[in-house]
Amino acid sequence: MDLYSYFYDLVMQIPKGRVSTYGALARALGDIRAARACGVMLSQNPDPPRIPCHRVVMSDGSLGGFTHPEGIKRKIELLRSEGIKIENGKVKDFSKVLFEDFKTDYPLKKLRKEQEELRKKVILEDAHPSLIGGVDVSYSSRNAYVALVIMRDGKYEVIGEKMRVDFPYIPTYLAFREEPIILEILKKVDDDILLMIDGNGILHPRFMGLATYVGVKNNVATIGVAKSLLMGEVREGKVYIGSQLVGQYIQSGRKKGIYVSPGHRITLDSAVRVVKKYLKYKNPEPLRLAHIYANKFRREDNA
DNA sequence: GCGACAG
DNA sequence: ATCTTGTCGC
């Protein structure tokens, strides 16, 4: 799903002489949580002012930001040239010129449904794959650099790949940003692998975090390893969503720990055991190395 | 001021 | 996630 293109098409619906808001665009995408992602995508406008990002303001009528050498001054010029009156940094008669009537089929709503459907296919039993690895992705604007580290008797091998991303980061929709990227690199290796992934497994509002999504879609065993808590309550190191046990908080030193949750084809206990086995620093080795290499690939490409 | 959301 | 240098500490 190319959410960037979908989003820019929405922005192009805002007529001259009208303005819309980050929140209205997010609702047109299907989830108000995407409001900040809307701001990010506007800042990356590939074709201004044909895609009229200058017509998007804050929900109180104040102007918001504008990524341009001349800054907000240029946004004001453009809006005034289209007949929008601006006083004290705010759009005058805001409610009269506000455009919210987007023609849309709410793509994020459909993606939520997909997550809920896929939930039925999650298997939380051990598959005992023969290989173990970790994947991580590093970004530079819309370029993604992915590294897959495969552990082999105390040593490891690394595979890298560069890709264009077509989906922004939106909380609880991370899978739709990173799964296509991870899939590309998975094609290059044996399926019989246990993959550690930066992000959550079933520790997710729809029990379908990145690790679980990657696992179910590609029939591969996965473990989710997150550095911060997306949701749920932690009691005695165990993470619950309501009464359901979905993860484990693991602290190695005295610093902040990690949140481990099963992705697919593994139990929570096994996931915790495997992660602990590779725990030398805060992150398990396959992930720590994948992180380092993904960053290295990005730097080398942008040098 | 509240709420706060992986990467 | 990215933007960013040196510096403190094990």
TrEMBL record:
Reactions catalysed according to its record: a 6-O-methyl-2'-deoxyguanosine in DNA + L-cysteinyl-[protein] = S-methyl-L-cysteinyl-[protein] + a 2'-deoxyguanosine in DNA; Endonucleolytic cleavage at apurinic or apyrimidinic sites to products with a 5'-phosphate; a 4-O-methyl-thymidine in DNA + L-cysteinyl-[protein] = a thymidine in DNA + S-methyl-L-cysteinyl-[protein]
Binding residue positions for Mg(2+): D136, D198
Location(s), subcellular: Cytoplasm
A GO biological-process term: DNA repair
EC number: 3.1.21.7
PROSITE patterns for the chain: MGMT
Residues carrying the site annotation Interaction with target DNA: Y169
SUPFAM superfamilies: Methylated DNA-protein cysteine methyltransferase, C-terminal domain
Cofactors demanded by this protein: Mg(2+)
Keyword NADP: no
Pfam families per UniProt: DNA_binding_1, Endonuclease_5
GO cellular component, one term: cytoplasm
Primary subcellular site in the record, as a coarse category: cytoplasm
Keywords attached to this entry: Cytoplasm, DNA damage, DNA repair, Endonuclease, Hydrolase, Magnesium, Metal-binding, Methyltransferase, Nuclease, Transferase
Keyword Nucleotide-binding: no
Molecular function GO terms recorded: deoxyribonuclease V activity; magnesium ion binding; methylated-DNA-[protein]-cysteine S-methyltransferase activity; RNA endonuclease activity producing 5'-phosphomonoesters, hydrolytic mechanism; single-stranded RNA binding
Family: Belongs to the endonuclease V family.
Function: DNA repair enzyme involved in the repair of deaminated bases. Selectively cleaves double-stranded DNA at the second phosphodiester bond 3' to a deoxyinosine leaving behind the intact lesion on the nicked DNA.
PANTHER family: ENDONUCLEASE V
Identification of the protein by name: Endonuclease V
Originating organism: Aciduliprofundum boonei (strain DSM 19572 / T469)
Gene field: nfi
